[in-house]
Amino acid sequence: MAAPGLLLLLGLPGGAWPSLGPPRRPCVQCCPPAWPPATPGPYARRSDGEPWVQPPRMRPTIDVSILKGEKGETGVRGPSGRSGQEGPPGSRGLRGRKGQKGQAGLPGAACRRAYAAFSVGRREGLHGTDGLRAVPFDTELVNLDGAFDLASGRFLCAVPGVYFLSLNVHTWNYKETYLHIMCNREATAVLYAQPSERSVMQTQSLLLPLAAGDTIWVRLFHRDRDNAIYGEPGDLYITFSGHLVKPAAELR
């Protein structure tokens, strides 16, 4: 009976009965390891059978803060460098706050306005048989600063600027009416009416720039026909007026 039992034990694998084999002793390194360790080849394997992995290379670092000394004294200021090139203009800044109200200034001189005006008339009729002639006037309605001379029928401009001028006459039956509003020696406007059996009122007006020293007057023009303007002592049919609209100083 013992023999079959022994054969049965011998037929089993050795790992099935660990306690039956010789005792295992732990592996003890008998020699110190080599330093630095040899770099394994690309196909080397560790003792456990896994592929060898190259360890990362470590580089020593130094903490500079440990070696930093105490702060030194401030050195002498160096010379100023050259001025650099002018840069481009910057963007516009924000609008500042409104300042305080300033003190009132001294009162200025009184404002002086320029005035000029005239309005004159003629009560007697006039014929143009003597050729070119200035129409004299015998009635003064408005004459500021005496700028209009009735005898010569001329207005002398003392305040330069733009003036409004107006001429009114009454025509004569069957006679021609032909007059010019003159500036110095130049005709600026004409008042004309053909001969007719009926007499009518005729008007001419205009705006004219005048310079200081210019003269304005009315000329009675004579041609082949009889030229005349009607008038009566009791009524005022013929009038000539003008006034300053705006002085030249305000036109700039």
Q: Kindly report the average pLDDT value.
A: 81
Percent helix: under 10%
SSE ordering? HHEEEEEEEEEEEEE
Specify the CATH architecture of the domain at 117-250.
Sandwich
Low-confidence spans: 5-10
Radius of gyration (Å): 64 Å
CATH class of the domain at 117-250: Mainly Beta
The percent range for strand residues is 25-35%
**Major sheet:** 7 strands, antiparallel
By DSSP (H or I, 4+ residues per run), the number of helices equals 2
Quantity of strands, as a count: 13
Please identify the structural class as seen in this structure. mainly beta
General form: rod-shaped
Named CATH topology of the domain at 117-250: Jelly Rolls
Q: Gap between N and C termini, in Å? A: 150 Å
Looking at how many chains there are and whether they match, the oligomeric state comes to single chain
Description:
It holds the Pfam family Collagen. Its main location: secreted. InterPro entries: C1q_dom (IPR001073), Collagen (IPR008160), Collagen/C1q_domain (IPR050392), Tumour_necrosis_fac-like_dom (IPR008983). Residues 111-251 form the C1q domain. This protein has 252 residues and is mostly beta strands. It has a domain at 117-250: Jelly Rolls (Sandwich). Helices cover 6% and strands 30% of the residues. It has helices at residues 2-11, 64-67, and strands at 117-122, 126-127, 133-134, 139-143, 148-149, 154-156, 161-171, 177-183, 186-193, 201-210, 215-220, 228-230, 238-247. The strands form two sheets. Strands 1, 2, 4, 7, 10, 12 and 13 form a seven-stranded antiparallel beta sheet that branches. Strands 3, 5, 6, 8, 9 and 11 form a six-stranded antiparallel beta sheet that branches. A hairpin with a 4-residue loop joins strand 5 and strand 6. Mean pLDDT is 81; it is low at 5-10.
